[in-house]
């Protein structure tokens, strides 16, 4: 397995590369795995979201256990929505409450698939080779907005606010998702602990089927959906989502409200 990160240098430049023994071995980019020769100490760099997706495809009802609890049929094709690039932040960056929303904000701990090359209408075999690696996603949701309008469920609005897509801390290539679990903690208390092998659609199936609906580009992320244990985040609370072999994604819900696009979100989307 290799661990990859995207970080900000002291001069404001963004670097991407493979992490080993406290150093970043820089590469030209996620879609250009050509080493630049630069080796940078991690202590001098500031972590960002490990990739800059043009879009995040977020699945719903992709775990058998949750489908059974909700009494929903298992889908025959991935059910998904899109989260905008501007919603992406990295680990240790605050989630900001929307300025005009006072309702429940929910966490959803998920595995993230990072696409390594453009794919459209690909087979499962081709899809597998299109996966660069895996990361962790917190698919944050303004739950009260989902059904605010009885005539139109507002999935994209509820999940698309700035800072509502936490990704990180790294991408791991060669990761065996089949034996892994997603563990979510809220202020240290365990809220989710579910096996990834309970997924309805495997990562390769997700990439293949979604690529029949829209073209996936290098750096795009598929959030594989969540399972049991989703809950709300209070102001000042910290959500930690851990997948052994990838790391821990940690974000606090800030006590202040959002006022425009925060600089950290803009940097993470660069």
Q: Can you walk through the features of this model?
A:
With 270 residues, the protein is mainly beta. The protein folds into two domains: 1-47; 48-268, Fumarylacetoacetate hydrolase, domain 2. It has helices spanning 64-70, 124-130, 155-159, 203-211, 263-268, and strands at 2-8, 14-20, 23-29, 32-41, 46-47, 55-60, 79-84, 88-89, 95-97, 105-107, 109-115, 131-139, 141-142, 165-173, 181-186, 189-195, 221-223, 231-232, 238-243, 247-257. The strands form three sheets. Strands 1, 2, 3, 4, 5, 6, 7, 8, 11, 12, 14 and 17 form a twelve-stranded mixed sheet that branches. A five-stranded mixed sheet has the order 9-20-19-15-16, with no helix packed on it. Strand 15 and strand 16 form a beta hairpin. Mean pLDDT is 94; it is low at 261-270.
Helix and strand topology:
Elements: E1 2-8, E2 14-20, E3 23-29, E4 32-41, E5 46-47, E6 55-60, H1 64-70, E7 79-84, E8 88-89, E9 95-97, E10 105-107, E11 109-115, H2 124-130, E12 131-139, E13 141-142, H3 155-159, E14 165-173, E15 181-186, E16 189-195, H4 203-211, E17 221-223, E18 231-232, E19 238-243, E20 247-257, H5 263-268
Parallel strand pairs: 6-17, 8-14, 9-20
Antiparallel strand pairs: 1-2, 1-5, 1-14, 2-3, 3-4, 6-7, 10-13, 10-18, 11-12, 11-17, 12-14, 15-16, 15-19, 19-20
Helix pairs in contact: 2-4
Domain Fumarylacetoacetase-like C-terminal: 55-251
GO molecular function, one term: hydrolase activity
Organism: Paraburkholderia denitrificans
